What we know:
single chain; 494 residues; mainly alpha; three-stranded mixed sheet; 3 strands; binds zinc ion
Amino acid sequence: MERFKQLTDRIAAFASASTLFSWDMLTAAPKGSRATMAKLESFFGTETFMLCISDEMKQCLDELEPIIDGQDMVTKGLYKVCKKEYDNFHKIPIQEQEKYNQLVAKAYIAWEAAKKNNDFAAFADMLDEIIRYNIKFIGYRGYKEHPYNTLLDDYEPGMTVKQLDAFFGRVKETIVPLLKKITDGKKAVDTSFRKRHVSIEKQKRISRLLMDVLGYDLDRGMLAESEHPFTQSFGRNVVRITTHYHEDDFFSSIFSVLHETGHALYEQNTMEDIGETLLDTGTSMGIHESQSRFYENVIGRSYAFWEYIYKDLMEILGDDFKDVTVRHFYEAANEVKPSLIRIEADELTYSLHIMVRYEIEKQLVEGKYDIKDLPALWNEKIREYLGIIPDTDTAGVLQDVHWSGGSFGYFPSYSLGNAYAAQLLAYLGKEMDIEGLIREGKIGTITKWLRDHIHQYGRLKEPSELIRAIAGEELNVDYYVEYLNKKFTDVYGL
Ligand code: ZN
């Protein structure tokens, strides 16, 4: 037991070291230092991985197995997490894993250049190789029902193709016609004020206002700037976020800060018993994304929220914005406009972007593809669901970094996050007047509920266990569909 505890502490420390180099590389390191930081990040990342599949780990797990039932909650949790990791990854031959890691490192650079030059062909062979490696690794690891299930389980434990097919089926039959109604309708939302110049100094004050309203504990956290916003956690006492300021689009940072603060609250609110262990983080990508989107979309894009922050916000923005009303802010925050780029997509069309990637990934993992047809396949699906066609592969199949890193099975977490958020909102709404609380700035009351039901458990419970414990049901897409219908019927007066 003592050895197991020491080993997991060592793994957690190596993982934190890797994260810290990544944090430094993305927020502070000047250009000439980045390669060194990246090397150190990868060194500690590999060490972490090797410890997880080490003989020492196997010995500990074997010796613990017969006595694990009698142990405390934290030991049982750690055992479960480590056993799963070990079972998943020790079957892949080390030499092949190393070759794959090298390939992926090269692929990132190739993807970056291909995207910049709109040259899919320059990246195609490497992408093909990455896909073939993934298919091979699934072969080593094994799968139930569909090979894609193995990859899904890495990001959203227990999720299956069967569940996702049903999920996206409902999403498709709801969002596509709703979107058509909106784009065919006459109502246009005036968002021109978003382009007005807001200095970075003012935007920093807005960030502080938002973090305070949401209740992010800055004694254990901080906000930095980076190219793309993100959250990093080293356990509940060190939880950091970033944003990116655009002087001609101050909304961009507002929603980044709300989103990342949502991630941060989850990480800061784990129970002390699991602090600084391998359990001291979110349970899955989908549940994590449900928290970020709860604060960003459910709270941050609600009318009540803009009512509450309006006075303080106007004080910062000054006279240049005195013609902008609460309603203007609310409508601009919820503007629906099909776009080619996922990360710029609005709340309604977002899941359509994910659906495109999900359908393609499933096909890739089944091995049913010809790599050179990928751009055309992509464009056809975007046309079908969003009614627009990418004019370059840069704005099409090459836009996202994920595939260059071999992250297949990751995208669905984003949509699951939206759906979980809507489901949690429905449960919460039965217990309290959410709108009233937001209007009075009592977001702490809502956070307490989320802490009690979700945050505190960290990785102690799996996604479906968390959701089932609240209302006895599993992921249910009905809540999400109803939420979208209600919201956009109001914004667009349908
Ligand atoms: Zn996120």
